[in-house]
């Protein structure tokens, strides 16, 4: 009656099996206490213990950051990610930090909650009263399935047992090697790095790009994230970057930048693709056009994306949400705020979206202009080729990005387009060209945009279609095909901007908005 339950700690599967098969066993171990955290999740051991009805307690759930000197862990012991870079302390890992910020929690709370959701008891350690209390605040919220997976994947890149038991190793036994103690081989870090690298394809494949007037280079093929459903955009970004995309197009109003950020942080932590190899765009929403609101809006986007800077920041619409004869804040005021972001190093290039020739001319002639727009992002596809606007932008040294290159088939309901509006994907001449080239209609439309010298943003959350949309780099449309697609008789803007019209102004009619 001196103890109610007995158990073991730091046992391997083999040592548990040996104990459980002992003929003298009358009381089964109730608990197995082991090291368990995202760098060393110990999945097989936990699964085996649970199958045997043995509860598991996780010690060192925060990665035992204060035991490095005690256990003589050195830099030589620290695993490297796929890029060969030493892994950070667990609570400083970008995936953990970004996840904590997204949930409004501390990294420690995220790691404790991870253990709880794995149905393990967990033993965070602290002598600080505030942290002790904070570590208990893990019961009223949950990590998502994606969060749980992201944390578990850290061990695929940077596996590390913090309490490795090296002090028990002796050439005379009973444990001559770590393999003897744990009854399992130690991680082969090079094999793991190779395994992570195999997730990536087209690493060395050269993509077409354009040098912007800011001096920075923009890949022409990007992944659009508008209308990507929650829970799907993270997987889409992971699939896109791993199959060769290097350009991601985001926006605050899309409501999914935190999810995009989760994917970016995971990708960068794998070490195969570096930050300077990615081109990340986001957009300033209409409600943040006041000069004093521009930087806070950007900082929110950077925090959500887990980034220190953007490659491109666009004014999303020439709309500020006010009513009346004039746009307030003015475009010039907003641009002044955006210019300041460049000088602070928070963005590398700035530009505009959904601007007309007249609105571009007005901005370019403003006396306070010190940073020219590097990019104009507009709707462009064979039903709305936008030739005059593209020509004008190019004459001004402004690169053009085409959004909705497939005719935005999934926005018909949202944009309240009537049944009489044709679908570009059903255009007979387009389908004939696709069949003749042995490509999908989507591939033909993307290739058409690239051959016009624009960057292009196809959107998909399907991994196979994402990969297929990248298969546009090794072939060309003929001059005849280009001419056919560029001169279709039917013309239709899919995103007309009706939602910005107001009888009181500043845009009373479509003509006011687009100046045509």
Global outline: elongated
Given helix and strand content, the structural type is: alpha/beta
Biggest sheet layout: 8 strands, parallel
Radius of gyration: 28 Å
Number of β-strand runs: 14
> Residue-averaged pLDDT, rounded?
93
Q: Give, in spatial order, the strands making up the sheet with the most strands.
A: 7-8-9-10-11-12-13-14
End-to-end distance:
89 Å
Summarize this structure as a short list of keywords or feature phrases.
alpha/beta; 516 residues; 20 helices; single chain; eight-stranded parallel beta sheet
Account of the protein in words:
The protein has 516 residues and is an alpha/beta fold. Helices cover 35% and strands 10% of the residues. It is built from 20 helices and 14 strands. The strands form three sheets. It has an eight-stranded parallel sheet. Strands 1-2-3-4 form a four-stranded parallel sheet. Helix 3 crosses helix 4. The protein is elongated.
């Amino acid at each position: 009656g001196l103890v109610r339950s007995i158990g073991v700690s730091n046992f391997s599967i083999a040592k548990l099996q040996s104990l459980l098969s002992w003929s003298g066993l009358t009381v089964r171990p109730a608990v197995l206490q082991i090291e368990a955290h995202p760098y060393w999740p110990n999945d097989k051991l936990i699964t085996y213990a649970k199958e045997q009805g043995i509860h598991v307690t996780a010690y060192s759930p925060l990665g035992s950051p204060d035991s490095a000197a005690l256990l003589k862990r050195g830099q030589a012991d620290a695993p490297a990610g796929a890029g060969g870079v030493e892994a950070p302390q667990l609570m400083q890992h970008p995936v953990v930090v970004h996840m904590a910020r997204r949930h409004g929690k501390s990294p420690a709370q995220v790691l404790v909650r991870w253990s709880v959701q794995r149905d393990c008891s967990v033993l965070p350690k602290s002598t600080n009263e505030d942290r002790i209390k904070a570590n208990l605040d893990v019961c009223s919220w949950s990590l998502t399935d994606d969060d749980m997976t992201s944390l578990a994947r850290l061990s695929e890149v940077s596996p590390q047992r913090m309490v490795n038991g090296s002090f028990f190793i002796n050439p005379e036994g009973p444990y001559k090697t770590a393999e003897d103690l744990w009854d399992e081989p130690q991680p082969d870090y090079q094999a793991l790095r190779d395994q992570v690298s195999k997730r990536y394809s087209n690493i060395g494949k050269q993509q077409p790009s354009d040098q912007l007037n800011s001096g920075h280079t923009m890949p022409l093929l990007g992944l659009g994230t508008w209308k990507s459903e929650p829970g799907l955009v993270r997987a889409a970004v992971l699939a896109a970057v791993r199959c060769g995309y290097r350009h991601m197009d985001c926006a605050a109003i899309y409501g999914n930048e935190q999810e995009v950020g989760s994917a970016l942080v995971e990708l960068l932590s794998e070490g195969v693709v570096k930050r300077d190899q990615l081109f990340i765009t986001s957009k300033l929403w209409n409600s943040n056009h006041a000069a004093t609101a521009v930087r806070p809006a950007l900082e929110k986007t950077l925090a959500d994306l887990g980034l220190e800077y953007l490659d491109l920041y666009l004014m999303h619409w020439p709309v500020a949400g006010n009513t009346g004869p004039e746009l307030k804040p003015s475009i010039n005021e907003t641009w002044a705020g955006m210019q300041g972001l460049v000088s602070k190093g928070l963005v590398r290039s700035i530009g505009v979206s959904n601007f007309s020739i007249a609105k571009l001319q007005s901005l370019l002639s403003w006396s306070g202009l010190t940073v020219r727009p590097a990019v104009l992002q507009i709707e462009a596809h064979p039903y709305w080729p936008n030739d005059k606007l593209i020509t004008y932008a190019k004459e001004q040294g402004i690169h053009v990005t085409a959004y909705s290159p497939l005719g935005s088939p999934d926005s018909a309901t949202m944009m309240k387009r009537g049944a009489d509006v044709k679908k570009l994907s059903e255009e007979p001449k387009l389908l004939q060209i696709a069949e003749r080239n042995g490509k999908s209609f989507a591939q033909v439309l993307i290739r058409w945009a690239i051959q016009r010298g624009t960057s292009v943003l196809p959107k998909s959350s399907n991994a196979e279609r994402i990969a297929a949309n990248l298969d546009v780099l090794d072939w060309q449309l003929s001059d005849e095909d280009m001419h056919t697609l560029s001169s279709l008789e039917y013309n239709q803007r899919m995103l007309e901007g009706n939602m910005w019209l107001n009888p009181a102004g500043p845009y009373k009619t479509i003509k006011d908005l687009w100046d045509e």
